Amino acid sequence: MIFTLILNLLAIMGVLLTLAGTIELALLTFGAMFPVRRETIVNPSLNLAVVIPAHNEAANIAHSVHSVLACAKPQGKFAVYVIADNCSDDTAAQARLAGAEVLVRENAELRGKGYALDFAFSQLQDEFDALLVIDADTVVEPYFLIACAEKFVAGADAVQCRYGVNNPEATVRTRLLHVALMAFNTLRPRGREYWGWSVGISGNGFGLSTRLLKQIPYTARSVVEDLEYHLMLVKAGFRVQFVDSSTVRADMPVNQQGADSQRARWEGGRLRMVREFAPKLLAEINQGHTRLFEPLLDLLLLPLAAHVLVLGLLLPLAPIYACIGLSIVLWHVAVALWVGGGTLKDVLTLCSVPFYVLWKLRLLPRLLKASKKDAAWVRTKRDGE
After folding, report:
1. pTM
2. What is the radius of gyration, based on Cα positions, of the chain?
């Protein structure tokens, strides 16, 4: 009797842990199957700047700056700004040699990407109509600037383009991340765009109009400042639109230390946002603000590996629900490969998912540490360092 009661309680807990995520995956996967409407403004006119936050990125920064400068540009004022943030190397000098303007920031106490971006935005928001952000290890497609400018000229307050992996061939883990980002940074924003929801900010390849920044300053300070700022935007009634026609790609860490650090920061920071924002969103939904329902579902969606693990454990306890949930995950991954341009190599790499799940479980203590409110921002260690 007691054993049966415990099993029933575990089944209920498993269903509650995964139900919001299962609904979210189903809605977004369905929406992603439809094409995103593209703006067709010829020669858009916009005063536009690209901002690249950089902490000790002397080895990578020139490549990123050259990638942006090689793009087709909208009519109007244009510049690339590198924020040399608390650098102890020659990032600033390398950025200037590559053709960028440089903003030097020194503050040993206030560290992190959020502070660096706020520093730049506060200085540039009176000079430009919109500001785009890429990371210092990123390359962009030739149409990146025009595609984003078209959205802003058509009235968007904020945009997010596709964000993928630049080095999927490096290791099995980078190939798996390549597949994961097809789901997280292509399928899911496509799905949200279809339903008319805010598509989210992925931290790389996003843009904000300066009229928006004047209303909602970039005061996000957590280790996942992009997610934090997006939640601030949707709570204030703003929407980020998806630029499906262009992609930015960044190198994913190959060395173990860099991969562990990046994953712990991403998922630990997200857990902190769940604790801080989920009750607030639920309270506002209760007051009739239904636009916040999807951001709440998104927050409650477990990392996909954890979601699959819990559903797998539910198979003997709640088989019908678990089979439906796992089927939706398979559909989600299949559609992600389709809309993301996946190849046979990507499909074959899915065979290593069990080992990926074990790696994620090993990171649990670091993830919990990164979820603390006072968790410090830690730069991902680059390969070769």
Report:
1. 0.88
2. 21
pLDDT in the model for residue 353 = 78
Ranges of each domain in the chain? 13-38+157-202+228-363, 40-153
CA distances from 207 to 131, 145, 216 (A): 5, 10, 14
CATH code of the region 40-153: 3.90.550.10
What does the pLDDT look like over 91-142, one tens digit per residue? 999 999 999 999 999 998 888 899 999 999 999 999 999 999 999 999 999 9
Label each residue of the chain as H, E or C. Answer: CHHHHHHHHHHHHHHHHHHHHHHHHHHHHHHHCCCCCCCCCCCCECCEEEEEEECCCCCCHHHHHHHHHCCCCCECCEEEEEEEECCCCCHHHHHHHHCCEEEEECCCCCCCHHHHHHHHHHHHCCCCCEEEECCCCEEECCCHHHHHHHHHHCCCCEEEEEEEECCCCCCHHHHHHHHHHHHHHHHHHHHHHHHCCCCCCCCCCEEEEHHHHHHCCCCCCCCCHHHHHHHHHHHCCCCEEEEEEEEEEECCCCCHHHHHHHHHHHHHHHHHHHHHHHHHHHHHHHCCCHHHHHHHHHHHCCCHHHHHHHHHHHCCCCHHHHHHHHHHHHHHHHHHHHHCCCCHHHHHHHHHHHHHHHHHHHCHHHHHHHCCCCCCCCCCCCCCC
Q: Tell me, what's the pLDDT at 134?
A: 97
